[in-house]
Design brief:
235 residues, alpha/beta, 9-stranded mixed β-sheet, 11 strands, globular
Length: 235
C-alpha cells in the first residue's frame, strides 16, 4: 500500500443516497465495507463527515437562523452522521471510535491529537465529529485541520464526482478531468476542489489531496492501490 495513514473526508449529502434527506442504510453499508477492507489491509484511517444531509449552517442563514447557531446545528449534524457510520462499522466487525471536537461524553470522547493517534495506531478507525468546533469553518476545513494534526499521508476527499475537472462535469458536457494538478494551478484556474480555507491549509502544510468517487463500491481500495481513478492535487 502506498499510504500508511489517511484522512478520509466523506460528504454528508452522499449519506442520504437516493433520499432527499437523512441517512441511507445502503450507503452506510457500502462505506463500512470499503473502509473495513482498507483497515484490514493495515491502513490507519481517520474520518471527517459533513452534515449536509441533515443541516447545513449556511442553509440556516437563509431561513432566518443566526449564522453561529446555524453552524452549531451543522456541527451536531456531523456528530449524528459520525455515530451512524460508527454503528455501521461495528455491525461489520470493524473496530472504531468516535471523537468529538465539542465535549459531549458519553456520545463521543473529546478529541485530541494524541488520543486520535493512539487509537489509529491500535487499529481503530477514528471518526472525528463536530467540525472544527468553531462557526464560519466548513467540514472541509475540519478535514484539512485533522489530516494535518494526525500527520496523515494524504487527504482523500470522497465525493459523487470522480475527480477535478476544468468545469463542473454535471453542467458542462465537455469538461475535462485532470489526473493530477498542482495547488497553484487550481488557484490560477479558479477550480472548486474544497473551500479556500481548507485548500490553503493543505497547500501550506504539504498535505496532498485525492478527489475521487466514493459512491462506487470498491473505489476506496482502488485509489489506495494507486489506480488513477481520481485526481491528485499536489505541490
Amino acid at each position: 500500500m502506498k499510504y500508511k495513514r489517511i484522512l478520509l473526508k466523506l460528504s454528508g449529502e452522499s449519506l442520504q443516497g437516493e433520499q432527499k434527506y437523512g441517512l441511507s442504510p445502503a450507503v452506510l453499508q457500502s462505506y463500512a465495507e470499503q473502509i473495513g477492507a482498507a483497515a484490514a489491509a493495515g491502513i490507519q484511517i481517520g474520518i471527517v463527515i459533513g452534515g449536509g444531509n441533515i443541516f447545513r449552517g449556511l442553509q440556516g442563514v437563509g431561513r432566518g437562523f443566526d449564522r453561529v447557531k446555524g453552524d452549531q446545528m451543522g456541527m451536531l449534524a456531523t456528530v449524528i452522521n459520525s455515530l451512524a457510520l460508527h454503528s455501521a462499522l461495528e455491525s461489520n466487525g470493524i473496530r472504531a471510535k468516535v471523537l468529538t471536537s465539542i465535549r459531549m461524553e458519553p456520545i463521543g470522547e473529546y478529541y485530541s491529537k494524541a488520543r486520535a493517534i493512539e487509537y489509529l495506531e491500535a487499529g481503530y478507525v477514528v471518526i472525528i465529529g463536530g467540525g472544527t468546533s468553531n462557526p464560519y469553518f466548513s467540514t472541509d476545513t475540519a478535514a484539512a485541520l485533522r489530516g494535518i494534526e494526525i500527520e496523515a499521508d494524504v487527504l482523500f476527499k470522497g465525493t459523487r464526482v470522480d475527480g477535478v475537472y476544468t468545469a463542473d462535469p454535471e453542467k458542462d458536457p465537455v469538461a475535462v478531468k485532470f489526473d493530477d494538478i498542482t495547488f497553484d494551478e487550481v488557484y490560477t484556474r479558479n477550480l472548486k476542489v474544497m473551500d479556500m480555507t481548507a485548500f490553503t491549509l493543505c497547500k501550506e502544510n504539504g498535505l496532498d489531496i485525492i478527489v475521487f468517487d466514493m459512491d462506487t463500491a470498491g473505489n476506496l481500495r482502488r485509489v489506495l492501490d494507486g489506480e488513477a481513478i481520481g485526481t491528485l492535487v499536489h505541490r
